[in-house]
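Would you mind giving me a polypeptide sequence along with per-residue C-alpha cells?
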Amino acid sequence: MRTYELTVRGVRTVVREQGESRGGEAVVFVHGSPGSADWDLLLGRAGRHTRAIAWDAPGFGQAAKPRDFVHTVAEHGDFIGATLDALDVHRVHLCVHDFGGPWALEWAARDPGRLCSLVLIDTGVLLGYRWHALARIWRTPVAGELFMATTTRWAFRLLVGRRGNPRGTAGRVRRPHVSRLRSRDPPVRAAAVPLAARPGRLVGRNVGHAGDRAAGRINVRATGRTAGRARRR
C-alpha cells in the first residue's frame, strides 16, 4: 500500500492508496473517528481489483488540524469533492462509516453524476436522529473532552460488549483502533466533539435528499445497527 501527503484547499492530509486506476474510477473509503488507518485491511482487498483510496479528513488521523477549519458536514463534504478532484477520480464507489456517512452523502447529493455505488456502515441519513448515550456525553461541554481523553481499551471493550455486539470486538482491530481513538492531542478531539455537539450540523442541507437521488440508479448496501433500525421502521 502506498501512503503519501497531499495538500487540498490548504490542508495537508495523508492518502492511503492501493491498486491501479481504471479510467478515473476508484473505491473511496471515508472514515469516521479516529482516521483512515481503520480502512487498511479493506484497502488491501479492494486494491486487488481496482484503485482503492482513503485519506484523513482535516483534524483527524495524520491530517493537519487547522484552527480555521469549520467542522461541519458542509465543509467536510467540500473537502471530499476537492480531494477527489486532486486525485483525478471521476467515478466513485463510496464505502463510508460513522461521521464519514453524512460527509460523503453531502458531497454525493451535490455531484450525483460521479457516484456509482454506495456502502453505508453504521451510518446513514440522520434526519430526526436521536442521540445515543455516548453521544450525549460527547455533547456535554467539558465532559465530552474528558471522556475522549480518558478512553481505555478496557472501557471500550466493556461498552461495546454491553451495547449489542454478541461476538465482541476482534483483538486485531481493538488495540490499534482504540489507541488512535484515545488520542490526547487536543486538535484531534476538537475535530470530533463539535460534530457530535451540534445536531443541526450533523445533517447537512443536502444529505436528506442523497439517498432518494441515488436509490433508483446505483447499488446501495447498508450494514450495522443503523441499517437494522431503518428496516424495522
Summary: Residues 2-232 form a domain with the Rossmann fold fold (CATH 3.40.50.1820). The chain has one domain: 2-232. The radius of gyration is 17 Å. The chain is about 40% helix and 20% strand.
